[in-house]
UniProtKB/TrEMBL annotation:
<dbReference type="Pfam" id="PF15418">
    <property type="entry name" value="DUF4625"/>
</dbReference>
<keyword id="KW-0732">Signal</keyword>
<feature type="signal peptide">
    <location>
        <begin position="1"/>
        <end position="24"/>
    </location>
</feature>
<protein>
    <submittedName>
        <fullName>DUF4625 domain-containing protein</fullName>
    </submittedName>
</protein>
<dbReference type="InterPro" id="IPR027829">
    <property type="entry name" value="DUF4625"/>
</dbReference>
Amino acid sequence: MKKKLIMGAMALLSVFAMTLTSCSDDNDSPSNGSIEIKDVEFGHHNNGLGTIGKDLHLECKIKSSSKIKAISVSIIKDANNKVEKVYNSGKYIGVLNTTFHEHIDLPATLAEGEYKGTITVTNTEGTVKTVNAKITLKKKEVDPNMPKISDLKVNTMESTANGKVTFTANIETKDPVDEIEIEFHGDKEYEMEFVEFKGKSGKFVFSKGVTLPGDCKPGTYHIHFTVKDNKKRKATEEIEGFVVK
């Protein structure tokens, strides 16, 4: 009888241990000096495309077994056509888990063509993890009929989650507007569409109060303001350095 009770207790303890293991926190860092990089994006929605003279969207989630020491980015075609940047201080450094999200400037002097994009993460244990992707860089197409945006402004460069800001811009389109969109790029992307301007054409002023999403985390954001017409031509202007406190 005692033997049966002991065996039953051991079985119960095994089930309990398995339950604890399966319910472990997803934020636990990897073990044995490892780095995990996932949800990688080179270009918006990982389309692998960049426009010379503009910038390239980069994003990935990083989980490290020890504190992150450095993150380096390179976009290379050859010795004369490359962009390299190292992040060894700031919000990505000295933490175990982070979402790396940056917009890397692509100088107008770069040649068109295929590039190799690389993100490399190093932690304090000396572990190094690299992800690569093929990227195509092209020069901006100039279409005289595409929408035009000028004097894009926001009334303040600082706000908070659920805070209100006002955007203004002068817009000119040959064909009717299909959509106007504002994107906030920070810890993640927040998109807002303004359908009330659909069908407008010619010259007009965009002036709109916007409430920031309630889940915006504090940090520095990069804003894209895009006008698309019904011929699928679009123009985008940007505001850098918008701060959510």
